[in-house]
Write a structure and sequence with these properties.
There is one protein chain. By secondary structure, the chain is an alpha/beta fold. It has a single domain (10-185), classed as Rossmann fold. Helix content is 30%, strand content 18%. It has five helices and eight strands. The chain has helices at 32-46, 99-105, 118-131, 158-169, 179-185; strands at residues 10-13, 50-55, 84-88, 110-115, 135-139, 148-149, 155-156, 175-177. It has a six-stranded parallel beta sheet, sandwiched between helices. The protein has a two-stranded antiparallel ribbon with strand order 6-7. The radius of gyration is 16 Å and the shape is globular. The N and C termini lie close together (10 Å). The mean pLDDT is 95.
């Protein structure tokens, strides 16, 4: 990856209080929020574009329910005045939102994607973003996974889900790297 001379937007996806509820227990990479904070501080210091994606789930039983007690963006990554906030109702941040228009308005051809969880909304956002022609930079330490149970009852731990999802996305859909490498390029 080459050194970037134009500001690349930092996208923070679904980092809301909802992710700390018991249904999301078992996460790997517990320091992902600290990593996002570090990237966010760098972007803010450079006065580069930051986009917060907030999931407003219409299903009342979801921890991300739009009117539920845990729908707020986590205090650790709270948007500042002037930072873009986009609400979504689907798994991909591009579906039913104006994210594509916002990025095009920034003349962005690539973006750095952080957030939760890698095998759900992160994966969906990466795939749609790639289909729209974006280069997606995915720092692996700025995301997490949770355990997954299959239809036949087989379970996969969060680390396995995380590793497999990142391996699938790397190369064809995104450039999987680390936050240290991102900060070294930008």
């Amino acid at each position: 990856m080459s050194v970037q001379t134009d500001p690349t937007p930092l996208v923070i996806l679904d980092v809301q209080d909802a992710i700390d509820q018991p249904v999301w227990n078992g996460k790997n990479n517990p320091n992902y929020v600290t990593v996002i904070q570090r990237l966010l501080a760098h972007w803010r210091q450079k006065n580069w574009p930051v986009v917060h994606i907030k999931h407003n789930e219409p299903t009342t039983t979801s921890t991300y329910y739009s009117h539920g007690p845990w729908n707020g963006i986590k205090a650790e990554v709270e948007p500042l005045a002037g930072e873009t906030i986009i609400a979504k109702k689907q798994n991909s941040a591009f579906v039913g939102t104006h994210l594509d228009e916002v990025l095009k308005g920034m003349s962005a051809t690539r973006f750095v994607l952080t957030g939760v969880v890698i095998h759900n909304s992160m994966d969906a956002t990466v795939r749609v973003g790639k289909a729209l022609g974006y280069t997606i930079i995915l720092p692996s330490d700025a995301t997490t996974a949770v355990p997954v149970r299959g239809l036949e009852g087989r379970s996969w731990d969060a680390a396995t889900v995380y590793d497999l999802t990142l391996a699938i996305l790397d190369g064809e859909y995104a450039h999987v790297t680390t936050s240290d490498e991102v900060l070294g390029w930008i």
